[in-house]
């Protein structure tokens, strides 16, 4: 993604907006918070079992785990793999805006019943994100572990804008709630919505842990059994994101 070119196109698209014309100072302050992201989707043809090209990862499935890497557990019970992302396929989509490892695979696990306490510590023991080498041998899930049917994911770079409820807009919103709400909503409406997203902002109004940013947001797909939950997002602290540390990732759960 050429982030600067994409931002220029967004500014051009806002040129006919009466809200933007009436508050150019506010527009720039909201646009300063727009972030690059990657949208992920399951191609329609893959749902019928057809082959899919340019796979950038998998929703569910079984992980490739090197020998000696244990399957993540929560209180002695193996977690379920929700997604696996191919860093080498995703990194070129964002270029210099990509802050994650440029090779290997990221594996996203969560305890199956979403019962884990978030606690007061820096991490969340009900989820785990592992960065493993590409090509590690696929490992069968431990007995009794929920396995989400594997669905291929294709990827495309997209801009992501904050909702007016985000803490980063709190000061502006307090000073001018009507205009900030209108501007933030209009900017988000002019950007594509995606089913699953890497980095950026959430498409919902869910608040994440203080000091954290979205790492991966997932919606329920066919074959998952989340009950009333419709989305799971993984969040990472700013310094950990910069350093590529995944030991303190936390989750946010979205209920219908």
Protein topology:
Elements: H1 3-13, H2 18-22, H3 24-31, E1 35-41, E2 57-59, E3 73-74, E4 77-78, E5 80-86, H4 87-94, E6 105-110, E7 127-132, E8 151-160, H5 170-175, H6 177-189, E9 196-198, E10 212-219, E11 229-237, H7 238-243, E12 250-255
Antiparallel strand pairs: 1-8, 1-9, 2-5, 2-8, 3-4, 5-6, 6-7, 9-10, 10-11, 11-12
Helix pairs in contact: 3-6
Concise structural overview:
The protein has seven helices and twelve strands. With 256 residues, the protein is α+β, with helices and mostly antiparallel strands. The strands form two sheets. The chain has a ten-stranded antiparallel beta sheet.
Features:
Hypothetical protein YwqG fold; alpha+beta; 22% helix; 12 strands; globular; DUF1963 domain-containing protein; 256 residues; 7 helices; 10-stranded antiparallel beta sheet; DUF1963; two-stranded antiparallel sheet
Helix share of residues?
10-25%
What CATH architecture do you see?
Roll
**Runs with pLDDT <50, length 5+?**
none
What strand order characterises the main sheet?
Answer: 7-6-5-2-8-1-9-10-11-12
CATH T-level topology: Hypothetical protein YwqG fold
What is the C-alpha radius of gyration, as a whole number of Å?
A: 19 Å
Question: Would you give an account of this structure?
Answer:
This protein is of the alpha+beta class. It has a single domain (3-45, 54-65, 72-255), classed as Roll (Hypothetical protein YwqG fold), CATH 2.30.320. It has helices at 3-13, 18-22, 24-31, 87-94, 170-175, 177-189, 238-243; strands spanning 35-41, 57-59, 73-74, 77-78, 80-86, 105-110, 127-132, 151-160, 196-198, 212-219, 229-237, 250-255. It has a 10-stranded antiparallel β-sheet. A two-stranded antiparallel ribbon has the order 3-4. It is globular. The mean pLDDT is 89.
